[in-house]
């Protein structure tokens, strides 16, 4: 695909803004043109905005309000839902629990992890598989639970569509990732970043510099800013300012493995200098736990070897969680 054919709209920070409106019913030509834009963004910064995604604004608003109410609960109530009680990586994560940047102080953020609800009798729960289990909800959470479930469902469908566009961008059939998309591992993470402390520890941040672990991340952020994306061409951090009604999409490490680094998972971090509470909601789409991620046929140059050995989604995700929690989690 020729770079000059791509019709690029960009934010002033240089990140592309891709309007995917009508993608669900788009013609093959329209899909190819969207795929070109996405492919260009993936080879460049690995981060882009999407608009026209079709996720209901009132659902987003409701969930945002639920997140704020949740983080306003007492520490005792939040700690009742401590993620340590879960073997499925669900529940509350207190401030300074995760260290996303090796060598930096733990992240100055708290979170609530929510996934698809699986009962104790589900065979994957019985088998102790990664991320399979029940959520931990605060009291009287029926509306919250309903909204989160609906959001996870809609975001999963959106992520599947983006995987089709990614496949097309890599000159693969549209349904190339259908096995990966089957029964996927997903995680909705609600995050609250208090204002950056007045006297932070050296190198302390809301979220240390890291790449995401899985397939795609679709991030909803409030209007306070603070997310920074590493621009490897210019050796500089770019401020990924919020754009109302958009999601930021970025690629996780599994996509680097698939594409032999043709597409990169990009370093990013959060420093909340707004002086206000910042809320964000990354949705992580990591695919079927049994899927084996190995170098794609269209990404291996002649006479070269894959840089990464094949690995299952589940093994890769477990490895990454172990690295960033160093004993602070009870993930099986
Ligand atoms: O809060 C954000 O804007 C980013 C969060 C993030 O990068 C993550 O949770 O992996
Ligand atoms: Fe991230």
TrEMBL record:
It catalyses: 2-oxoglutarate + O2 + 2 H(+) = ethene + 3 CO2 + H2O; L-arginine + 2-oxoglutarate + O2 = guanidine + L-glutamate 5-semialdehyde + succinate + CO2. InterPro entries: DIOX_N, IPNS-like_FE2OG_OXY, IPNS-like_sf, Iron_ascorbate_oxido_reductase, Oxoglu/Fe-dep_dioxygenase_dom. Pathway: Alkene biosynthesis; ethylene biosynthesis via 2-oxoglutarate. Pfam families: 2OG-FeII_Oxy (PF03171), DIOX_N (PF14226). PROSITE patterns: FE2OG_OXY (PS51471). Its EC number is 1.13.12.19, 1.14.20.7. The keyword Transcription regulation does not apply. It is an enzyme of class 1 (oxidoreductase). GO terms for molecular function: 2-oxoglutarate oxygenase/decarboxylase (ethylene-forming) activity; metal ion binding. Residues 183-287 form the Fe2OG dioxygenase domain. Keywords: Ethylene biosynthesis, Iron, Metal-binding, Oxidoreductase. Its cofactor is Fe(2+). GO terms for biological process: ethylene biosynthetic process. PANTHER family: 2-OXOGLUTARATE (2OG) AND FE(II)-DEPENDENT OXYGENASE SUPERFAMILY PROTEIN-RELATED. Belongs to the iron/ascorbate-dependent oxidoreductase family. This is 2-oxoglutarate-dependent ethylene/succinate-forming enzyme. It comes from Marinomonas ushuaiensis DSM 15871.
């Amino acid at each position: 695909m020729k770079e000059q054919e791509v019709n690029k709209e960009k934010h002033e920070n240089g990140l592309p803004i891709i309007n995917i409106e009508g993608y669900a019913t788009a013609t093959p030509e329209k899909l190819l043109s969207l795929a070109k834009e996405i492919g260009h963004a993936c080879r460049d910064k690995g981060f882009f905005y999407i608009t026209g995604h079709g996720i209901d604004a009132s659902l987003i608003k409701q969930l945002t309000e639920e997140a704020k109410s949740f983080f306003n609960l007492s520490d005792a109530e939040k700690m009742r839902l401590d993620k340590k009680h879960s073997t499925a990586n669900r529940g509350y994560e207190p401030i300074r629990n995760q260290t996303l940047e090796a060598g930096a102080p733990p992240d100055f953020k708290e979170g609530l992890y929510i996934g698809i609800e699986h009962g104790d009798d589900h065979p994957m729960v019985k088998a102790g598989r990664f991320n399979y289990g029940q959520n931990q909800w605060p009291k009287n959470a029926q509306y919250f639970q309903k909204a989160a479930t609906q959001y996870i469902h809609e975001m999963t469908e959106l992520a599947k569509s983006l995987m089709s566009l990614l496949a097309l961008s890599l000159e693969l059939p549209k349904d190339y990732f259908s096995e990966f998309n089957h029964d996927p591992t997903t995680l909705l993470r609600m995050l609250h970043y208090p204002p950056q402390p007045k006297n932070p520890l050296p190198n302390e941040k809301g979220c240390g510099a890291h790449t995401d672990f899985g397939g795609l991340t679709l991030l909803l952020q409030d209007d306070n800013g603070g997310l920074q994306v590493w621009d490897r061409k210019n050796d500089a951090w770019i401020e990924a300012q919020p754009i109302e009604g958009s999601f930021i999409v970025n690629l996780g490490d599994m996509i680097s493995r698939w594409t032999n680094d043709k597409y990169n998972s990009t370093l990013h971090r959060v420093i909340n200098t707004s002086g206000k509470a910042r809320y964000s909601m990354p949705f992580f789409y990591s695919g079927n736990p049994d899927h084996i991620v190995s170098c794609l046929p269209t990404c291996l140059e002649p006479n070269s070897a894959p840089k990464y050995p094949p690995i299952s989604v589940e093994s890769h995700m477990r490895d990454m969680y172990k690295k960033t929690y160093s004993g602070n989690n009870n993930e099986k």
